[in-house]
Amino acid sequence: MQTIDELLQEAYDLVGQRLPKETFRDAEHPNNRLLIGVTCLRVGAVNVAYRLFESIAQEGPKENANHHFAYVRSLVEMAEIDAENERYSQAAEHMATALAEYPESMGYMMSRVHLEVYLTYYQYQAGRKDEALSSIAALCAREEQAFREMEPSDAKALVGPGLCYALHQWALFYAMEGEWDRAYEKANSMIPYATSVDEAGVEQAERLYREGNGEAAMNRLIEAVRYRDGE
User: Fold this and answer.
1) CA separation for the pair 38, 26 (Å, rounded)
2) Distance, CA of 128 to chain centre
3) For residue 110, what pLDDT band results from cuts at 50, 70 and 90?
4) Which of 194, 90, 89 is closest to 152 using CA atoms?
5) Which of 3, 76, 130, 205 is the 20 to 30 A CA-CA neighbour of 116?
6) What is the pTM of this model?
């Protein structure tokens, strides 16, 4: 089994020229290992990156807030790599642990709602469909309540993106089952929470739906709804 020193040497050979040497010298610091792992990921060295993230995750939660961020971020990165390799049960396990340890102070860097949506997707792909649908429904209900409790302009900016993302995924779950009526209905429910809506696109989607083309209607509706930065 590869030692941590051997792993760091392998990483240094790959990305040593991209990072300060101090990053490798102080690699006991979990944030430095996280940075090395993310850099490896960017150059396509996925297996090395995964093992670096794993070395942090295996140390468990941290009392130091910065170190704890590295712990949670490493679990999230592992989950995403697991999912890309269709290890969905493992991805769900890692993401669930990350969410259980997620500190609210991390919200400015990593959206908890988005991570919760990822978890439902992993559950669904792992064959835990009932659990995924129950989880996404509870998540949307919670965020809809949070939306109602805020001023409309603040709600659209702060709650709307995550809520729309969750509703979008819920619609996609129905689409994956070929339930186009329910998929269209769920996509349509994004509109009140979106930052902007292409009304002409919504009208086109409604026409397609009336014509009995639920799949095209849902896709056109999703295209017409803007809820993320840069869209």
Assistant:
1) 16
2) 18
3) confident
4) 194
5) 205
6) 0.93
Contacts of residue 197, Cβ cutoff 8 Å, sequence gap at least 6: 191, 224, 225, 226
d(CA 158, CA 156): 6
Angle at 163 between CA 216 and CA 86, to 5 degrees: 70
Q: Residue written as tokens 């990305």? A: 15
Q: Where do we find the tokens 């649908």? A: 133
Tell me the DSSP string of 94-136.
Answer: HHHHHHHT--GGGGGTS-HHHHHHHHHHHHHHTT-HHHHHHHH
The distance from CA 23 to its chain's CA centroid, rounded to whole angstroms, is 27
**DSSP run (H or E) holding 224:** helix 214-224
| For residue 183, pLDDT beyond 80 | yes
User: Which tens digit of pLDDT belongs to each residue from 193-218?
Assistant: 999 999 999 999 999 999 999 999 99
Beta-carbon neighbour count of residue 191 at 10 Å?
A: 16
Neighbours of 20 (CB within 10 A): 11
DSSP notation for 36-78: HHHHHHHTT-HHHHHHHHHHHHTT---SSHHHHHHHHHHHHHH
Write phi, then psi, for 197 (nearest 5 degrees): -135, 135
